[in-house]
Design goal:
homotrimer; alpha/beta; uronate isomerase, domain 2, chain A; TIM Barrel; 2 domains; 6-stranded parallel sheet; 3-stranded parallel sheet; 18 helices; 9% strand; disordered C terminus
């Protein structure tokens, strides 16, 4: 009974047009051109490498796409249990009509050719969006992105601020900020001016959010202009080797300033909390980051209190932080739960995390899912994975356990999948 | 099959008379007088506020009960997914005969009138207890409560000690302690005397437990009389602004002394571990507390070793601490698992936490549930929520997974719900 | 449907011959000789003690086995809900043909006699292995074990290194190391030589792994020879009372050296992370250890990066660390998930931990289970517990949720149960 019910709920969710509120899509090349773009996704390369495939096999200079696919196909068997592999199977089946069981390390070439032909069609990206039921996807743009050359109502700009908060000691980066703003950045004041100018640019170009990923050790706090000025001087002179207290102070100062700008420009500020970069030094590209799960949202107490007018869609990397996230969203009006991120983006974690949120966080404050994808083809299997889990939780915990009607459950799921995304990142945001 | 089985187990549990071992009931006005008492519970006000309702709307001076209910009813829709809202639906249906779907922001007035009439009946509190199958409820009394004017076998006194441990820097509070004991408290010695006198008073009046809620940072340790005397001097002179080490030392000293008194008077000491007070400064009344889940029961190592003769019913605020709780209760004879507290008092957390305890902690050392309620009407839906989850866990993990008979499962559940409460807080406790 | 499916999967898993990759079996007396060996297992004594049984009752000098069993049988009722008790029931039923319900505190003597007769058969250990479908079990040998007098292909040596890393301040222990190696250990250099000699001895005698259990505070790091020499001098002179920084430095030095030897000798290094020893000082034998769940695998970042050539099968004591374990095994080629340890070795934790691993860690990098047993009889019920949970997870999350065939699920489970054990600890390991 429960299985049939889950299928009905899933079918409803899967029939709706959605907006994906966080991706890493490049709007100039949103879709894949060969299977190498798909199997080159870090989930496959890092899992294959973890299972024993040599990094040089994957990242060899001048490697042709077809050869890269051949090599990776030969190394997928040890990871065919993972949910990430199931995304591959679903993409292959849905986009290229190849049944899941029939692709192997021996006959992948047919698939390669079929898929390459399809991907070379001029409207391939539109086909993928349509089939994936995605109406728009949010981007994650560098601060100096000109935001030109695409339809920003489909590929919605979002200002990524990691570089500004954590990498200002890099002179090239400061140079990029100067180039993007035509300002000479000589002190904290001109730095603030430059960042403000970038906000104006982004909001003028339909940006709907600001985003940042944060290490577990980060504790936002208000830092005085004077303290920031001292830090700035040291960092400009000493670069990366400046005392860590200066790096911390300047980062906190810029973070706080960015939050003020989010308030001024009415932008939600996506906080993605908990990642340690570069933990596995010899890992493959994008396969080096891990985390320390000993992080607490209490570190954000001052921030959440200081900015009641800013909406913070919060993602946590480790599922052990999910109860805190649910509790903080239950108490703080400006904290919103946001999707299921990275290492917590697998069915068993989504199931328990979504269940905890659904029973204690107001329904209007939960953003169900985002794909985090780099290529459009991943939207379909990732969203479907989430919709299946959502259907399971609603079927078991609301319809069966609590006596809800199916239509109530569908309404709730739909609000998480679509309604809240529209409202929270919605058209109300203006550059006034 | 499992659903039917769960219903049968639930029906058994729901037919039994219970004792609620932890509430915040005021024995002089135990039940609600209008719906405003029910919807004024912090779960509704904080969730409505979190979902966007202005705090002033809720806490306006001189707000009439009926107007308060009107305003809250207009703001419940965004939280109708929460388990807390389901408590409201169940109360309305069970106590006032109004089916769940029929109360809305538009027609709540009929409900208001019906419920007000019922609540004005002189035996309303008794009716509620009877319908809720509660034979007695434990209170949480201030140290200077005279404990007079009610039947202490139904409303059982329990000495709350937060003030004594954490707020002695408040001169008014010290004054209240002097007034309650007729002692002049001039030093640590007279302080100890005064606290001892309060224990005598409580035990003479049928108190069955001592209780305290503790922040994540608290680490009980034995502090010497001399160190405590130094802290006392500083705190009496400097009040709140005394060095935090003095506050900590005096708090630890008093906590240890209270535990010794629990030993002397044979009182269990309820430890409720993990709350940070006042995190959301602008929150509604009682809606400001959150937590840092990075707490460990290892902080209580010295305490549990030092007092083998004291029973510690332990509650943890965050579900991530539940495995530690289960493990400590499995090893330490004096540690008992106690209910499902606050942010962990929702079905999915209860389910996983109860399952972990049931499979590894001796059955005699588990107190199934307490309501933590402020008004009697909440006992019914809260206990039923627990009984449903308990039935689910026993059905799925004992009857189906492990081949237990239904009657074995019912016996185990009953022991958690009733037998252990009677024994652990039982009549053996005397003032000798 | 799901229950039948689970049973079929379980039956498949239970029909296969396995190798148990971590036990504390004494190869000279691998099986029990009376029921007192079984009920004397710390799980029963500590749970009975926790439920109120006096420690002296259990550990009285000169207590006869039969009397010990009589006393324990009289104290099992309060823990008959635990999964540990269910192991007892299953052993009694499978090995001695006594149905589970029929043994009580009143009629245990028949069971005692029946079991004693069986256990006195000369091939009892072989019978138990056969019935338990165990082909070989790994041991946990002290560094000075001569490794003589048994078939090391059935009872496979494994070098336990806790003593070398954490107890070198004990002069007797240093004496044992000298005796075992015929070396005079006067400095760090001769210490290294002695440890190296022990590796040679172990590998010559078919050792397949090195193992260590680690406290939550441990952080492996490379320590210079000079710093280690300073620590060594202090520790030899001052013993246990040497500054804790010297203890830490020497422990880290030895740990790093042991890891280098694992690399040299191609031995996997089992890391069992998270135990605090002696927390409950008055606990029964082996019933004193608990933990602080605030541990992170990020503490092992330097180690995992420094030794890509060493395989680390990692066990974590607390289930809250399981997601980190799954993520680190997903990223680091040399990190492998290893079983379900101690306080996390109960069905609900196994279920959630195994599910998280199965969906995100390459199948080739998961060692399903080890028993950790002290007597052979426990292999059967412990492995069966795991196989039942594995069958449940595969049935519900792979066959039903993800559409896998039963045979695919059986293959995956079999790989975890057997294939990976053979390969990871396999015959490739040589002393070259």
């Amino acid at each position: 009974m429960s299985l049939e019910l889950r299928k009905r709920l899933f079918a409803e969710f899967d029939s709706q047009m959605l907006v994906d509120p966080h991706t890493h899509i490049n709007p100039h090349t949103p879709a894949s051109t060969t299977l190498a773009d798909i199997l080159g996704y870090h989930y496959y390369t890092e899992l294959a490498h973890s299972a024993g495939m040599d990094k040089q096999q994957i990242e060899q200079d001048g490697l042709e796409p077809q050869e890269k696919v051949r090599r990776l196909m030969a190394n997928l068997a040890p990871l065919n249990n993972t949910i990430q592999y199931s995304w591959f199977v679903e993409m292959v089946s849905e986009f290229f009509g190849v049944p899941s069981e029939s692709v192997t390390a021996d006959n992948w070439e047919t698939l390669y050719d079929v898929s390459s032909r399809k991907m070379s069609q001029s409207d391939w990206a539109q086909q993928v969006l349509r089939k994936s039921k995605l109406e728009a996807v949010f981007l994650t743009n560098d601060f100096d992105d000109p935001l030109e050359g695409w339809d920003t109502s489909v590929y919605v700009p979002c200002l990524r601020t990691d570089d500004l908060v954590f990498r200002l000691s890099d002179g090239n980066l400061r140079g990029r900020l100067e180039a993007a703003t035509d300002l000479s950045i000589t002190d904290v004041g001109t730095l603030e001016q430059a960042i403000g100018a970038r906000f104006e640019h982004f909001v003028r170009n339909n940006a709907r959010a600001c985003a940042i990923s944060l290490p577990p050790s980060f504790e936002p706090t208000r830092v005085s202009e004077g303290r920031a000025a001292t830090a700035w001087t040291h960092i400009c002179q000493e670069g990366e080797s400046a005392d860590s207290r200066h790096h911390r102070a300047l980062g906190q100062f810029v973070f706080w300033r960015i939050t003020e700008l989010c308030a001024d420009f009415h932008l939600p500020f996506d906080l993605m909390i908990g990642v340690n970069r570069g933990v596995y030094a010899d890992g493959v590209f994008q396969g080096r980051d891990l985390y320390d799960s000993r992080v607490s949202l209490i570190q954000y107490e001052e921030l959440f209190n200081a900015f009641p007018q800013v909406t913070f869609p919060v993602s946590v990397l480790a599922s052990v932080t999910n109860q805190e996230l649910a509790s903080f969203a239950w108490i703080f009006p400006n904290v919103v739960t946001n999707g299921h991120w990275w290492y917590s983006n697998t069915p068993s974690f989504i199931e328990r995390d979504a269940a905890a949120r659904l029973e204690a966080v107001p329904r209007s404050k939960q953003i169900g899912y985002y794909s985090d994808m780099y290529k459009l083809e991943f939207g379909l299997p990732k969203f479907r994975m989430y919709k299946r889990v959502l259907a399971k939780v609603l079927a078991e915990r609301f319809v069966l356990d609590r006596g809800w009607s199916e239509s109530q459950a569908i309404q709730l799921g739909t609000e998480l999948l679509r309604g809240n995304v529209d409202r929270i990142f919605g058209r109300e945001a203006t550059s006034d």
